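Milestone 3.1: sequence recovery, worked example.
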């Protein structure tokens, strides 16, 4: 059975307490507090969020017994606005972090095996409409119950749309993608359970599952009945524990559910009954979780706008569990002192149980602590990490290399004195390329000596660069860092597309940014022979800083070297070109390596504070390649 791989960027989200309450202040949610949190949407008769409630309006029951609410937050998501510049909505940052400190939703688009070929265009349109509803702070993932390559949680719309429109394009060598068997349709329930179990540890965010499919085998009166019992119960229990609101979207529209008055043939009556059972199965999960069954394929954007509006505002309640460590499932009931409203809230939680460590996979790090931080479906945020993954070609185009750059922040929230954070120390770093099923395709492990440097906010930072040999394809990179000085570990997940440098007329490396001086990088010369600067994951700079951008331009082995141009542009948040340069490239510059470096200094002194997009494009005849990187000036 194909396994759903779902990862979420970020750690816990910390919310502000409700201002202006007359009662004793209720504590905010804090890292390390052993609470069960319950995110609750309260909807009126029109399914619009009810705002302005206080902690006194809610009651929580655990296994039928009242529990005191010891933490409370009201969350109001910002309105959905289109930025002035289209690139701000389309081009995602090229760096990933495990420290997302803002509100937002987690949205899973599940494209099911029940979709018939004629329903595929409508299914794609529905999935695209979900992506279009995302706003800043939201993260989305694409999952398949059988055939297809899932896309883990990201804010990158291009990656989400690529997974929806071309689910098998760009698979690396060794990553099979054949359709899995799905006896009795049980794989759909198993996928729903996988999604819910992956989201269960996520605190204080609203979680939405948009199931796109023409059927969902929840119940069956035939021989499949027994086959569905276990996956159905597992899916229902996982949904209850994760507080996952399910919306089922039928891409075939809503067919006639009853036979016509003149229908006398048994086949017609059987077809009508089958349709009733099918729609009843599709409605079960939405009805259980407070979601909706949708079937309007002509206006999916309108229907999905209503869906997202339901979670524009919600509440997070926290209580101390009565049985935190027994490993059992405990029922939760939330009540609100308002008439005529409906609640979307989790129905239970699992007490912590003794964890049996997974066996290390092939290519796993030698350190068990490092393996634990990358083996789970959720990155570990005990230390703050930021990562970028940059593809490059070897000098003779004999292969490709991915440079993984990770910045480690020893922040003021870390245990220990400032002197401890500033002192040099040893770190262990593991970087692995994972396929869609979570298997390690390539990995590297380093033990390094680092010297942190002062950074903003009283923190100390250092950066580590790793190199992986990878063939062309799409990869997820997971990096784990064990900071021996702090005694803490963390992980961060990101993605990279490796071009076919040999077989492409024109290709670019990823964009590297380097800020001088940058003495907190290990190893000292991490990209010798591949790039002429020391990279950083920083993307926010002050005016007056010395920052260079670097790309390497390659002409593959498909034809003779040709002359061309490299064009660099910087666009501001108003979509105005504020910088442009054009440089001619002659064939002798490429030499035997068929590559030439392009390096430019960012004109930070000439740019006012704001957000910018740097675009670098190489043009050779009819062939071209382009890279983007977002940065800001403060």
């Amino acid at each position: 059975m194909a396994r759903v791989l779902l990862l979420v960027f970020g750690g816990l989200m910390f919310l502000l307490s409700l201002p202006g309450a007359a009662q004793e202040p209720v504590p905010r949610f804090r890292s390390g507090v052993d609470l069960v949190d319950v995110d609750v949407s309260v909807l009126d008769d029109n399914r619009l969020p009810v705002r302005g409630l206080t902690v006194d309006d809610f009651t929580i029951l655990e296994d039928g017994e009242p529990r005191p609410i010891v933490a409370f937050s009201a969350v109001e998501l910002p309105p959905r606005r289109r930025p002035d510049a289209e690139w701000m909505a389309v081009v995602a940052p090229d760096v990933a972090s495990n420290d997302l400190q803002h509100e937002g939703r987690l949205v899973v688009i599940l494209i099911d095996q029940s979709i018939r070929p004629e329903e595929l265009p409508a299914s794609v349109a529905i999935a695209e409409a979900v992506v279009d509803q995302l706003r800043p702070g939201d993260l989305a993932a694409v999952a398949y119950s059988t055939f297809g390559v899932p896309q883990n949680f990201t804010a990158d719309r291009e990656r989400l749309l690529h997974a929806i429109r071309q689910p098998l394009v760009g698979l690396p060598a060794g990553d099979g993608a054949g359709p899995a068997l799905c006896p009795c349709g049980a794989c759909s329930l198993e996928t729903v359970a996988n999604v819910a179990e992956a989201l269960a540890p996520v605190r204080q965010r609203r979680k939405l599952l948009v199931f796109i499919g023409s059927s969902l085998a929840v119940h069956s009166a035939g021989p499949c009945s027994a086959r569905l019992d276990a996956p159905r119960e597992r899916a229902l229990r996982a949904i209850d524990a994760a507080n996952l609101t399910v919306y089922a979207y039928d891409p075939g529209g809503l067919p006639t559910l009853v036979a016509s008055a003149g229908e006398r043939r048994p086949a017609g009556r059987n077809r009508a009954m089958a349709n009733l059972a099918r729609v009843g199965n599709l409605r079960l999960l939405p009805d259980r979780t407070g979601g909706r069954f949708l079937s309007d394929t002509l206006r999916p954007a309108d229907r999905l706008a209503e869906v997202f509006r339901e979670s524009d505002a919600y509440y997070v309640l926290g209580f101390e569990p009565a049985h935190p460590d027994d490993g059992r499932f405990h029922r939760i009931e939330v009540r609100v002192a308002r008439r005529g409203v409906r609640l979307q809230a989790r129905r239970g939680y699992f007490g912590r149980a003794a964890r049996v460590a997974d066996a290390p996979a092939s290519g796993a790090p030698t350190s068990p602590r490092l393996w634990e931080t990358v083996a789970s479906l959720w990155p570990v945020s005990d230390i703050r990490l930021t990562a970028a993954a940059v593809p490059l070609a070897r000098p003779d185009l004999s292969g490709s290399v991915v440079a993984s750059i990770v910045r480690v922040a020893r922040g003021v929230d870390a245990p220990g004195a400032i002197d401890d954070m500033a002192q040099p120390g040893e770190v262990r770093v593991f970087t692995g390329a994972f396929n869609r099923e979570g298997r390690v395709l390539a990995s590297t492990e380093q033990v390094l000596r680092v010297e942190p440097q002062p950074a903003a906010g009283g923190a100390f930072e250092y950066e580590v660069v790793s190199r992986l040999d990878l063939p062309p394809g799409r990869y997820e990179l997971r990096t784990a860092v064990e900071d021996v000085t702090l005694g803490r570990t963390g992980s961060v997940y990101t993605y990279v597309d490796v071009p076919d440098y040999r077989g492409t007329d024109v290709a670019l490396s990823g964009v590297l940014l380097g800020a001088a001086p940058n003495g907190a990088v290990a190893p000292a010369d991490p990209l010798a022979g591949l790039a002429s600067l020391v990279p950083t994951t920083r993307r926010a700079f002050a005016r007056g800083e010395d920052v260079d951008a670097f790309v390497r331009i390659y002409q593959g082995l498909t034809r003779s070297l040709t002359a061309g141009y490299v064009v660099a542009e910087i666009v501001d948040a108003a979509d105005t070109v504020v910088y442009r340069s054009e440089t001619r490239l002659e064939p002798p510059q490429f030499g035997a390596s068929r590559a030439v470096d392009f390096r430019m200094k960012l004109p930070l002194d000439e740019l006012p504070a704001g957000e910018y997009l740097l675009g670098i494009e190489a043009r050779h005849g009819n062939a071209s390649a382009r890279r983007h990187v977002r940065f800001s000036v403060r």
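The chain has a mean pLDDT of 83. The chain has three domains: 104-311, 358-498, 499-634.
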